[in-house]
């Protein structure tokens, strides 16, 4: 390489190749597949940042030039002299400068749907005797250090490759030297950007010698190559970008405050979300209390400085003892404290990205606690994100004791990148016996942040400011395991003086919570609605920018309204350009499988699988053979698959085995009938014949006249047609003996029941035998944070281009989605409030306060709703309007999530993804006969669905990464597929199972018969997909015991197999009557 490069650099005899994948070479590069992930390559190159990089989205660019200007050559000479002080006569004749700007990893997006981007530069300086290469990287860490190559995440490479060189005596060729600078680690990539401008500091300098041709040197150092033209998108949409001599800075626009990268409207309340983890010893306990990822929610009314903080799932063994620590939320109060004249709160100075570490020393026991907090900025929902870790020991506060915190003041000292403070806090513990104890602790903290280096942000801020905190409220709610803090915060002078009396500075004004208070002379003031709101300031209403200015987001984009703001999103097929605002078209490969432009065999025999980059493969379905383009049925009966005492029936793509009369088994194993175990039908028949007329087991309401005796065929299975001799009524049953809804005929007539052995003759357009007819107008509903989308279904196919948002719920985290087919109403659960809400397609909403609702099940026949609560660890039921709530189960539940109702037969199914004992359970819809269906071989059974046609219960497991199904009655279990990513929710419809996947940010369809993936839908906004449900234009036929007149119950009518139960809500009144009714 060095001889070749020197030959070019010295004599300019070969053309230079600049490649978008982060390297330069003199030879024509080979195909990507021959060098990406397979270094060293056969050709020579200098790799500045070698990987599968993308510059086709309108934001990434590659610039290169040859420069002989004196100022550039002088600057290059200075860099070389600093790195190689012993070299004499550093006089470059020219420089080749190549810049890769805002390049992204091919096909990879970050968590928010945006590409990570890197900018780097290579300078090659040529002199008469040697050549030098200088690599330049941004001062901040690179945003990505790896790219996908052959579906594997592989680190980028930086180094020099000589390529193929002649062998001895010119016989053949051998691989030349490959000098690699980076290693296969993230630390190695980050080290590229961690060198300093100060050349007296340590530098990475590399020297490579090739034969006796020349010496080749590399000096690596940091360089800030950023301007507003390429980085404006890094500023807040409510900020302006300004260029400086050495870079750029972001500044919030008038009416907003922050550091420019995070800006908030003046007067607008602020929400915060985060997680809290801890390992804390309480009192003299030898073992710690540990908890992880507990939810933290906070709300600040910025125009009066009042902050509210709540942390959930705090066990009672530590909850009371955390009450003296409202300091857990003090940084929130400081960030949004009410500002006194000429003083500024934390967020207005440093924004929402900083780290905070505090040390607490309790007196007199000298217990110590460390608090570490990471503030990660404002997310797409305008929430400030916080991560908290607690470690140490705290004094014990006994159960039932309350704590009072005295008002305090704390002085904050400000410097360029560090803020410090310390104080003493006093608190009083009111013991359960009535005694009072006074304690204190010493508090020190440091806040680290990164301000814009090109201007002095703190020049207008006093070096010392005082935070005053009063009206402090603390409480531990043992019933709900919640700890709550509230406090009022003001930031002002460290000197005592006459307090400000203007209501804007005291917080005692009557402005709306979405308004800013503007002080005037004396005690006069005015209220002004915050940006994004309208009104007189006393009452403010949200402005729907999307409706008032339809073109506000520009071409090829959609507008999503939010409280006080809005968000633009590019439509499918477009992405944001480098400015972060303009939508430009993206080049997308053609999915021939979806378009139907492939040459695979018919879908009944083969499957087309899209492999990316407009490619696909054809494969025959199970039961067929061939190359996928021509598939023939396999006659399994010729292969002797069945037992010798069984009859084999070949079908297209499959076969069945059935033991001959006189034998018992599944067809694969048959034994003489005299030794076989009685079937369920035979046992049912014997029990009915032996029981009295008052006994018996019935699946549906039947006249209580005489005794029903089931009919069994020669194999012991239920006959498809069953009749009640005394009542003269007949109905159809499935293979389990359960009545098929809607099949009961009037006395004296018989329904036509489908035989399970012989397919009925085809009359007109009948669907294939293994496909259930689909209701026209069905849709898939699925939720993402802040909205619910729908995808129309055409048979088993998703109509992707007609997908759209059906419901916007800004600021919410929608977990579960359910649909009531009677009133055409959507139900969803939200964990931020938390609540369960509903809305018709014409609007309207009802909520019920909960702990952390996750799963929802609708019994449309009884007009009841069931849900799981993972905070309160219980299952509840209520009417569909949220009234008459009753706890169904509150024991032996740890992390219940999905829940499914089977109203036609009175069953309730749910799963608990408790990591120490996951399980899937069943009970009656009234809570009776609770039993565990599945307990072995589970990991994280997140998703659960019930198919009423096949009577199968299916689940997707994010731990085992499998999809499995079970017959709840025979307990026969079957694995459909494995190797899926991270399923969250699943629903069954027609031939397919549809599930949402957190890793893929997608809705995935799979065939529930063979487990093959058939389709994928990627939402326009790439973020986690949560709940999923099916909407029906009309309800499936069927009734249950509670369908008519609420079963005669005064309040809740809860069906179950063979009867129903009248139950009272937990909040009882004298008019409620409880009773059980059997049939």
Automatic annotation (TrEMBL):
Residues 268-501 form the Nidogen G2 beta-barrel domain. The keyword Secreted applies. The keyword Glycoprotein applies. Residues 678-753 form the Thyroglobulin type-1 domain. GO terms for cellular component: basement membrane; plasma membrane. SMART domains: EGF, EGF_CA, G2F, LY, NIDO, TY. It comes from Cyprinus carpio carpio. This is Nidogen 1b. Keywords: Basement membrane, Calcium, Cell adhesion, Disulfide bond, EGF-like domain, Extracellular matrix, Glycoprotein, Repeat, Secreted, Signal. InterPro entries: 6-blade_b-propeller_TolB-like, cEGF, Cueball_EGF_LRP_Nidogen, EGF, EGF-like_Ca-bd_dom, EGF-type_Asp/Asn_hydroxyl_site, EGF_Ca-bd_CS, G2_nidogen/fibulin_G2F. Transmembrane segments: none annotated. Residues 48-211 form the NIDO domain. It is found in: Secreted, Extracellular space, Extracellular matrix, Basement membrane. GO terms for biological process: canonical Wnt signaling pathway; cell-matrix adhesion; epithelial cell differentiation. Disulfide bonds join 723-730. LDL-receptor class B repeats lie at residues 863-905, 906-950. Residues 500-541, 542-584, 589-632, 633-669 form the EGF-like domain. One of its GO terms (molecular function) is Wnt-protein binding.
């Amino acid at each position: 390489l060095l001889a070749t490069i020197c030959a070019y650099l010295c004599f300019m005899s070969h053309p230079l190749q600049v490649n978008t994948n982060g390297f330069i070479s003199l030879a024509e590069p080979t195909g990507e597949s021959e060098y990406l992930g397979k270094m060293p390559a056969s050709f020579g190159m200098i790799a500045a940042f070698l990987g599968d990089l993308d510059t086709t989205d309108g934001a990434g660019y590659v610039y290169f030039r040859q420069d002989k200007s004196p100022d550039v050559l002088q600057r290059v000479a200075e860099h070389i002299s600093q790195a190689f002080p012993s070299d004499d006569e550093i006089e470059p004749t020219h420089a080749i400068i190549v810049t890769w700007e805002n390049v992204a990893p091919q096909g990879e997006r970050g968590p928010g749907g945006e590409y990570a981007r890197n900018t780097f530069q290579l300078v090659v300086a040529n002199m008469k005797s040697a050549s030098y290469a200088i690599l330049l990287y941004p001062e901040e860490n690179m945003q990505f250090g790896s790219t996908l190559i052959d579906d594997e995440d592989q680190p980028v490479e930086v180094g020099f490759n000589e390529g193929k060189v002649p062998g001895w005596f010119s016989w053949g060729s051998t691989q030349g030297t490959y000098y690699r600078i980076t290693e296969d680690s993230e630390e190695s990539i980050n080290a590229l950007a961690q060198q300093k401008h100060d050349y007296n500091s340590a530098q990475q300098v590399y020297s490579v010698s090739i034969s006796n041709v020349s010496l080749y040197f590399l000096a690596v150092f940091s360089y800030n190559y950023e301007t507003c033209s390429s980085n404006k998108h890094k500023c807040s949409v409510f900020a302006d970008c300004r260029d400086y001599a050495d870079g750029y800075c972001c500044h919030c626009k008038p009416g907003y405050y922050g550091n420019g990268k995070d800006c908030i409207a003046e007067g607008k309340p602020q929400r915060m979300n985060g997680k809290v983890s801890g390992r804390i010893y309480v009192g003299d306990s030898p073992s710690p209390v540990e908890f992880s990822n507990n939810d933290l929610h906070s709300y600040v009314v910025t125009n009066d400085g009042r902050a509210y903080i709540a942390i959930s799932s705090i066990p009672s063994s530590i909850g009371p003892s955390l009450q003296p620590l409202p300091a857990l939320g003090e940084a929130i109060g400081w960030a949004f404290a009410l500002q006194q004249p000429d003083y500024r709160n934390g967020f207005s100075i440093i924004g929402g990205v900083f780290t905070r570490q505090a040390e607490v020393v309790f007196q007199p026991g000298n217990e110590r606690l460390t608090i570490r907090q990471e503030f990660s900025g404002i997310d797409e929902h305008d929430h400030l994100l916080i991560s908290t870790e607690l470690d140490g020991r705290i004094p014990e506060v006994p159960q039932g004791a309350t704590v009072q915190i005295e008002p305090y003041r704390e002085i904050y000292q400000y410097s360029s990148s560090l803020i410090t403070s310390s104080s003493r806090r006093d608190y009083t513990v009111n013991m359960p016996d009535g005694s009072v104890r006074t304690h204190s602790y010493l508090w020190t903290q440091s806040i680290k942040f990164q301000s814009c280096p090109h201007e002095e942000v703190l020049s207008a801020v006093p070096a010392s400011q005082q935070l005053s905190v009063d009206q402090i409220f603390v409480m531990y709610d043992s019933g709900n395991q919640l700890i709550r803090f509230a406090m009022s915060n003001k930031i002002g002078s460290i000197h005592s003086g006459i307090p400000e009396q203007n209501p804007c500075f005291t917080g005692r004004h009557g402005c709306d919570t979405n308004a800013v208070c503007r002080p005037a002379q004396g005690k006069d003031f005015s209220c002004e609605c915050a940006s994004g709101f309208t009104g007189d300031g006393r009452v403010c209403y949200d402005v729907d920018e999307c409706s008032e200015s339809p073109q506000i987001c520009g071409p090829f984009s959609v507008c999503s309204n939010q409280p006080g703001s809005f968000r633009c999103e590019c439509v499918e097929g477009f992405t944001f350009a480098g400015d972060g605002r303009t939508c430009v078209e993206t080049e997308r490969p053609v999915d021939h499988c979806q378009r139907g432009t492939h040459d695979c065999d018919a879908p009944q025999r083969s499957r087309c699988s899209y492999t990316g980059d407009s490619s696909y493969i054809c494969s025959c379905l199970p039961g067929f053979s061939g190359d996928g383009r021509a598939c023939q049925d396999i006659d399994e009966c010729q292969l002797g698959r069945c037992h010798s005492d069984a009859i084999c029936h070949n079908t297209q793509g499959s076969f069945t085995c059935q033991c001959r009369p006189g034998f018992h088994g599944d067809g694969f194993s048959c034994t003489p009938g005299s030794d076989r175990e009685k079937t369920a039908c035979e046992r049912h028949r014997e029990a009915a014949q032996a029981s009295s007329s008052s006994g018996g087991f019935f699946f549906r309401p039947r006249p209580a006249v005489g005794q029903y005796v089931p009919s069994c065929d020669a194999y012991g299975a239920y006959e498809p047609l069953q009749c009640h001799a005394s009542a003269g009524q007949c109905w159809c049953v499935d293979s389990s003996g359960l009545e098929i809804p809607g099949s009961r005929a009037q006395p004296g007539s018989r329904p036509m029941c489908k035989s399970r052995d012989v397919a009925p003759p085809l009359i007109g357009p009948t669907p294939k035998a293994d496909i259930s007819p689909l209701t026209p107008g069905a849709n898939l509903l699925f939720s993402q944070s802040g909205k619910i989308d729908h995808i129309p279904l055409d048979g088993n196919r998703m109509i992707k281009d007609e997908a759209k948002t059906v419901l916007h719920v800004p600021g919410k985290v929608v977990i579960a989605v359910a649909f009531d087919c009677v009133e055409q109403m959507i139900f969803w659960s939200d964990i931020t409030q938390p609540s369960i809400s509903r809305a018709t397609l014409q609007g309207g909403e009802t909520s019920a306060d909960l702990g952390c609702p996750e799963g929802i099940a609708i019994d449309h026949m009884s007009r009841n709703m069931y849900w799981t609560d993972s905070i309160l660890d219980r299952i509840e039921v209520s009417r569909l309007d949220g009234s008459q709530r009753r706890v169904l189960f509150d024991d032996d539940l740890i992390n219940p999530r999905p829940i499914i109702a089977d109203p036609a037969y009175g069953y309730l199914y749910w799963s608990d993804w408790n990591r120490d004992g996951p399980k899937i359970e069943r009970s009656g819809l009234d809570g009776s006969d609770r039993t565990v269906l599945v307990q072995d071989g589970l990991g994280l059974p997140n998703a659960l669905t019930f198919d009423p046609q096949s009577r199968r219960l299916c689940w997707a497991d994010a731990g085992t990464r499998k999809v499995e199904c079970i017959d709840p009655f025979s307990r026969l279990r079957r694995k459909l597929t494995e190797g899926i990513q991270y399923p969250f929710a699943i629903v069954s419809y027609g031939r397919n199972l549809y599930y949402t996947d957190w890793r893929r940010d997608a809705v995935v369809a799979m065939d529930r018969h063979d487990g093959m993936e058939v389709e994928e839908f990627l939402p326009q906004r790439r973020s986690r997909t949560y709940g999923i449900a099916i909407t029906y234009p009309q309800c499936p036929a069927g009734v249950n015991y509670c369908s008519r007149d609420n079963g005669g119950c005064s309040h809740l009518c809860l069906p179950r197999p063979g009867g129903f139960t009248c139950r009272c809500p937990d909040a009882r009144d004298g008019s409620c009557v409880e009773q059980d009714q059997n049939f």
